[in-house]
Each structure stands twice: as C-alpha cells, then as structure tokens.
Amino acid sequence: MRISLDETQEESENGVRWNKFNTQAEFSTFSSSLMHVEGEQQPTRNEVSDRLFFILKGSGQMTIDETVFDVHEADCVYVEKGCEHSLSGNLSAFVVNSPAVDPQYEVQEPRTDEGIKKLTVLVEEE
Known about the structure:
Layout: E1 10-13, E2 16-22, E3 31-40, E4 44-46, E5 50-64, E6 67-72, E7 76-79, E8 85-98, E9 106-108, H1 113-125
Antiparallel strand pairs: 1-2, 2-3, 3-8, 4-9, 5-6, 5-7, 5-8
C-alpha cells in the first residue's frame, strides 16, 4: 500500500502541524505521520504506544520525561510508552507509533512554570 502526502490532510494545534499517513482504523499494528514543529510542542504521553521519531530536517530539542537533548537532521529518537515527551525548535519528523495510536490513551499535559525551571537546570548542568 502506498500513501502519498498529497492524499493526507494537514491538521494543526499549538504550533505543531502534522499529516497522518494512516491511523488505527487502517492498521492496528502501527500508525505514522509527518510532523512539523515551529516553536514548542505541548508535552504528550501515550500509555499504550511506543514512538519513533526520525528527524527529516531542521533542529531543536527533545524532552523525554525530564531529560532534554538536542536533535538534528537524520537523528532517530525512540520514546517508550508512558514517557512524557515533547519537541521544540524548527523541524520536521516522520513519526511511527506501535501499536497504532488510540486517542483515548493520548494524554497532553501543559508544562508548568516549575517544570520549565527544572528542565532549564538540567540543560545548564550539561
């Protein structure tokens, strides 16, 4: 099965745009999307699906739980189910979720001022 970007519909929320190539309805074993981040993504956690982010272009930072690190073109990042994660910067990534994302298990948590201070301290210590 081939799915062209032209066949997808762009969605957006809070500075993040994405095109879903497939969903749980098409395949239960995985879902995939093209994601564009301009700024900061709201922290997200999925209780069921592992995620793989392949950075196609651009650069930024990724936070997984309380660990912050730089990401660049051609980096691949694995996020285990249950881990809070977010991206910031100006980048595009291909994202694969396994099993396919079920929206009922997708949790978005706004980052608190205390959380931002804690993340800043981690970055400054490196």
